[in-house]
Design brief:
Elements (H helix, E strand, L loop, with lengths): L5 E7 L2 E9 L39 E6 L2 E5 L1 H7 L6 E9 L8 E9 L4 H14 L1 E9 L2 E10 L2 E7 L22 H13 L13 H14 L2 E4 L4 E2 L8 H18 L20 E2 L10 E4 L3
Parallel strand pairs: 1-5
Antiparallel strand pairs: 1-2, 2-6, 3-4, 5-7, 6-9, 7-8, 8-9, 10-13, 11-12
Helix pairs in contact: 3-5
């Protein structure tokens, strides 16, 4: 059974809704250990002082903030306690806003808010009111000694608390070079691009149809290696970027390919080619082979 990482209440005006907070995502990343190449002994990280060179035990460590190069202010647990926000155990709603008014980049980590028995009716009221209004709640919440800004959003029967980034945590777009919104795009190209979007559109997103191919291939490779087999990575060619000169031709061929696939009832993953190439084959450049690019081929190692 899932373990609640936080319990408290949603404060909605004078309404208090007791809830528990549960993690809504799980990390499925593969974890590797560092080993000694000669004998496969496990390698552990040790802490050494850069001044005296001695090994330092965890109990002898203190926090330090480098306020200028080579100069630190040491910070104790008591120092941090003095500035920690009050742990109110409350999701304090401060305002409501339409979801499309929030840049999706602000959203970070989702959690489920499960109501306590005595708060189920008020919970349902807030959820249904958010659905009917088309809005989400913006709230402040303290989790693990840190105050966060968060959105409370309806998700089917559930209310989801999604932690958000603060504005100064996002890298500004002006730091990059993007084509301007008024950059000239030919009407004919735009028309074909819209037709291509239409033919590739689905009525409902089905996340179960997608899977972590890289993870599956790595696990297959590990299983093969554990069984004494060797892995032969296939040669992979990366298509060149689409040239403006033949963009219209590429769009047209993409549209025809998408229509043909739709008639067969297939998906984009069924294509042998991952992308439509825009330049003649003789101008393709081979990319570095990776096990993630395609399923690895196995061959038995010599006895």
């Amino acid at each position: 059974m899932a373990h609640a990482i936080w319990s408290g209440a949603i404060n909605f005006g004078l309404v208090t809704i007791p809830v528990k907070l549960y993690t809504a995502v799980r990390t499925n990343d593969l974890r590797f250990n560092f080993l000694h190449k000669n004998d496969e002994g496990r390698i552990y990280n040790e802490r050494h002082c850069s001044v005296c060179g001695e090994k330092v035990e965890y109990a002898d460590l203190v926090r330090g903030y480098e306020y200028e190069k080579g100069h630190y202010v040491t910070i104790s647990d008591d120092d941090l306690k003095a500035v920690r926000p009050e742990a109110t155990q409350s999701v304090q709603i401060v305002e409501f806003v339409e979801l499309d008014q929030i840049n999706p980049m602000y959203f970070d980590t989702p959690y489920y808010l499960e109501p306590e028995k005595k708060g189920r009716h008020a919970y349902a009221l807030l959820r249904d009111a958010l659905i009917d209004s088309g809005r989400v709640a913006i709230a402040r919440v303290v989790i693990r000694s840190r105050e966060h800004i968060a959105a409370v959003k309806p998700n089917g029967e559930a209310l989801v608390l999604e932690l958000m980034h603060f504005a100064d945590e996002l890298v500004e777009q002006k730091a990059f070079d993007f084509p301007a919104l008024n950059e000239k795009v030919a009407d004919a190209e735009k028309k074909i691009a819209k037709l291509l979007i239409d033919t590739m559109s689905v009525e409902q997103f089905k996340p179960d149809e997608f899977h972590d191919k890289y993870k599956e291939d790595v696990l297959a490779m590990i299983e093969a290696r554990a069984n004494g087999e060797e892995i032969e990575a296939p040669e992979v060619h990366r298509p060149a970027a689409t040239n403006v000169v033949n963009l219209m031709d590429v769009l047209q061929r993409s549209l025809e390919q998408s229509k043909a696939r739709r008639k067969k009832g297939g998906s984009a993953d069924d294509d042998e080619e991952a992308a439509v190439e825009a330049k003649p084959a003789k101008r393709k450049t081979a990319a570095k082979n990776t096990a993630a690019a395609a399923k690895p081929k196995r061959k038995k190692s010599a006895a």
